[in-house]
What does this fold into?
Amino acid sequence: MKRLHDILHNIQAEVSGDASLNVNRIVFDSRIATDGDLFVAQKGTAHDGHKYIPEVIAKGCKCILCEIIPENLPAEVTIIKVNDSHEALGIVSANFYDNPSSKFKLVGVTGTNGKTSVATLLHKLFLQLGYKAGLLSTVRNLIGEKELTATHTTPDSVSLNKLLAEMANAGCDYVFMEVSSHAIDQKRIAGLEFDGAIFTNITHDHLDYHKTFDAYIKAKKQFFDALSKDAFALVNIDDKRGRVMVQNTAAKVSTYSLHHISDFKAKVIESHFDGTLLSINSNEVWTQLIGQFNSSNLMAVYGASLLLDQREAEVLQHLSSLKTVDGRFEYLRSNTGITAIIDYAHTPDALKNVLSTINAIRQGGGTLVSVVGAGGNRDKTKRPEMAKIASNASDKVILTSDNPRDEEPQRIIDDMLSGVETNRRHKVISIVDRREAIRTACMLAQPGDIVLVAGKGHETYQEIKGVRTHFSDKEVVEEIFMLNQINNQ
It folds into this structure.
């Protein structure tokens, strides 16, 4: 419980009514608002919370934060008028939970691809270095060693600050979190104090939300624009927009790269399916991670660690023991010699990176069979591009369902097929049922061949017509390999 005037610190607001009210909770969902809550009315893409103000008042809620003051309010209701209730929600949430992000080193990771890998690898590394660390990611949230379910890449402001408060109370020294473009644009991270920010890359994605690529870039850039002069900004300059991100930041800027002169530089010396030999700032390091994109992710981890004042020799030593993140270039081998790779690649750039890595390692040996899908109710522009990339870089392609959500799976596949060049149509087939598509790919593969199952990675569900059912690409491949082993005995 907090006094209202205490959680309005750093908010530009007009307050009408009793500012000494006790606030038990901060809510923005009118369905759960009740007496003792501060209800924050937000204008969303689908609904405007302002229209529910009379409803929450009828439920006994006496404290409202909003942008537009409704008429005929009861005298006992306190109104806090602000210009931006999204930003205000972040700040009051941070104040309500005693500004937890100020109690440890908080590092945010943003970019189209690599956010989960970089944040997770940093968390693993700092645990190995002997610190207590927290993680907020798409795959999992960790408070020390305690795991909680992740529902969004970046939770809403109230949930986020509650999690960070738990991390502070648990004694975390560092917290690493993914920061999505949605979270930045919706100001879910307002009120947080970041000690560092990492930019991995940016490619076409989320245009269903941002509408234009320029708007997507600007959303990412806002994260760096808001950093303080005491923070660091670490950017990948192999992406041409790396330097754009930090044009207006007050933070200390550092760079990492595989291909350009930078503060933290690596070169791939050897690459195999069981690991990669890197030269990192002239130090040779063997890592269990595979591919150039993972090498780039490791450079973000290496650079951030040194910027957080860790000893280089210890960091390099622990980089060698870091293992792949669930669903990120995770590979399985059958007893017959077929290699299956499970990867979350669900954007054109990510798919291109994974296929390039596989082709560079296999060097012409074995057939590559790729299983690729695209999500429903999301950016449609990437569907034909992903199919084109898959058909150009694979020997055989099976187009299938990902999470079709409310769309017809066959229509999504038809959108993908439109990107396949005529002279490559012969190598592409479509199978709507994802399990059957994976089974077919494994049946087509011979000893020495490679099966890529792309798009879902760590996810353990498939969403069809609003219903989520359990589905794991990894589990399906393991079942098929086991069944084949039994049949071959």
Q: What stands out?
A: Residues 267 and 396 are 31 Å apart (CA to CA).
